[in-house]
Amino acid sequence: MEQMRNLDVLDGDEGRMCVNTEWGAFGDDGALEDLRTNIDREIDAGSLNPGKQLFEKMISGMYMGELVRLILVKLARDQMVFQGKTTPELLTTGRFSTSYIYTIETDKDEEGLANADKVLRDLGLNPSAEDCKATRRVCQIVSTRAARLCAAALAAVLRQIRDNKAAERLRITIGADGSVYKTHPGFSRRLQKMVRRLVPDCDVRFLQSPCGSGKGAAMVTAVAYRLAAQQAERQRILDTLRLSREQLLEVKRRMTDGIVLGLSKQTHEQTSVKMLPTYVRSTPDGTENGDFLALDLGGSSFRVLLVRLRSGKRHKVDMHQKIYTIPQETMQGTGEELFDHIVQCIADFLEYMGMRGASLPLGFTFSFPCNQSKLDEGILLKWTKGFKASDCEGKDVVMLLKEAIQRKQEFDLNFVAVVNDTVGTMMTCGYEDPKCEVGLIVGTGTNACYMEEMHNVELVEGNEGLMCVNVEWGAFGDFGELDDFCTQFDRSVDDCSNYPGKQRYEKMISGMYLGEIVRNVLIDFTSKGLLFRGKMSERLKSRGIFETKFLAQIESDRLAMRQVRSILQHLGLTGSTCDDSVLVKEVCSVVARRAAQLCGAGLAAVVDRMRQNRNQNQLDITVGVDGTLYKTHPHFSSIMQETLQDLAPQCRVTFLKSEDGSGKGAALITAVACRGNNQGQH
């Protein structure tokens, strides 16, 4: 049993593995040349595999009898035995069986000599008493050398084990089998004696196997069967998280149905896909000009930005920003406390920029589902992403912010736009690529927006032109559309979330929840004895220990298993083995792949709808993307894009990563709106 850390041919460094030394081939590289005799070389030359298994040819029962025969032939030819005579039988390869050695070397001298006499006479010889003694001596020399060579090799193995364990004294049992070891009257005794002489600091016990090959094979088979059964159970569980192409096409179809229902005034309330009008009617054209203030609220941090746009200098946007944290108690306290905190952050930023008292056009990136009847109004439908501030849902967030500013009485702002981060992403990328008419976020949460034909947006008056629609697809599935795709792990994550039954699609895709899905799978595996040796650590029971960044790190192609294990240890899973690391990586891969495929299926529904709206056989479109999961996970983007290409083959989609869609995007929407106002378009 060798330490895994010493097996460079395998990935992993935890635990041990049984190593088959195949020591019969020892010496094939010339390492035994100074110990081999002419007799050894003669046996090798006449064998079926010359130059191979040289150590075995000096030790094993297959060759010991032949060694004795060749020595007797040489002695006879040298006139030292049998009066210099040989017989055809003595000269025949293989006629001196190794079993003869066992009978000749019996512990009783007289019996041994009598057996030697019989063996020699069967070979056509007429031996004297001295010939029988000489033959017995040759047998002893050959078998003793074999036992000692075997002991020397065994001593090397024992030293390796002792050094691995850094033990001053090694206590170990050796299981032994084989006809020579079991049948030869003195072999095992000589072997054991020499082992103890060569490694005196090892207490060695030899245990003879009664039926090693049969029973041992059965035991190995039983273990392999158990492991195979465990692997089959693991795969059965993971298969519930794997989606077929047919299932993904069904997700696309249901998303398409949801989009159609959400756009219609009559059926808007019958779908979880709310298709919220954003009142953003055009993308940037490069003529935007001026200084704009942008606020960005969408997670546990809040940003205030000053964005300077100069017409004619596209792609040259000057930005200054500060990031402020939002404490958990503020996220889940009262609405007044939350918006007072936001206003305090704005006041600090204006002071920091030396702009106290300045009045600037303001864009507010508010990354939560809002109903808008105009650009500068947003009625919060529901909190997501861990927010639960009271007295906010159903109210206009612009008004809540204005009231907080009035309470502060330090500055005033000119509110122009309430922006969803997805729309901001689309606008930021649209500033660089005019074909960008879709925004996608895959980070803490997930959502999409796109430019819809106005005549389809029944919630807003007017039929001309386009309007950006906030799909709010994170809520897809809240009406049961995804129930047949949800697993026990999804249901567990949903049950323990801040808002059970809500944002079902988001809970299967976004970075906020993927780690929890993985953790629930690992708990299930561990409880069934399929992982971590069935030992449930307290750390594994802790919600939120698997962050998105750990999933991304674990799935990195650059990481060896030992590094994956080190991440698990960092997470407090100290009892993990290399096999555990392999399985954890597979779980992460399956969960992330499903997320990317589901996202790709949803996006396929969006772009295919745009293609059909425009009656085009082939749609060329750019999707602006933002979000940590998309940007940092090593495989998410490629799997999502492959899925999209497969499910919407008539759409040629380019993906453009957004650089600060939430901040710059809010300023651009505000700038486009101001440009429109100046031109009398709104």
From TrEMBL:
It is an enzyme of class 2 (transferase). One of its GO terms (biological process) is glycolytic process. Its EC number is 2.7.1.1. Keywords: Acetylation, Allosteric enzyme, ATP-binding, Cytoplasm, Glycolysis, Kinase, Membrane, Mitochondrion, Mitochondrion outer membrane, Nucleotide-binding, Repeat, Transferase. One of its GO terms (cellular component) is mitochondrial outer membrane. Pathway: Carbohydrate metabolism; hexose metabolism; Carbohydrate degradation; glycolysis; D-glyceraldehyde 3-phosphate and glycerone phosphate from D-glucose: step 1/4. It catalyses: D-glucose + ATP = D-glucose 6-phosphate + ADP + H(+); a D-hexose + ATP = a D-hexose 6-phosphate + ADP + H(+); D-fructose + ATP = D-fructose 6-phosphate + ADP + H(+). Residues 235-431 form the Hexokinase N-terminal domain. Residues 1-223, 438-672 form the Hexokinase C-terminal domain. SUPFAM superfamilies: Actin-like ATPase domain. It is found in: Cytoplasm, Cytosol; Mitochondrion outer membrane. GO terms for molecular function: ATP binding; D-glucose binding; fructokinase activity; glucokinase activity. It is a peripheral membrane protein. Monomer. Interacts with TIGAR; the interaction increases hexokinase activity in a hypoxia- and HIF1A-dependent manner. Catalyzes the phosphorylation of hexose, such as D-glucose and D-fructose, to hexose 6-phosphate (D-glucose 6-phosphate and D-fructose 6-phosphate, respectively). Mediates the initial step of glycolysis by catalyzing phosphorylation of D-glucose to D-glucose 6-phosphate. Plays a key role in maintaining the integrity of the outer mitochondrial membrane by preventing the release of apoptogenic molecules from the intermembrane space and subsequent apoptosis. Belongs to the hexokinase family. This is Hexokinase-2. It comes from Nothobranchius furzeri (Turquoise killifish). The lineage of its organism: Eukaryota, Metazoa, Chordata, Craniata, Vertebrata.
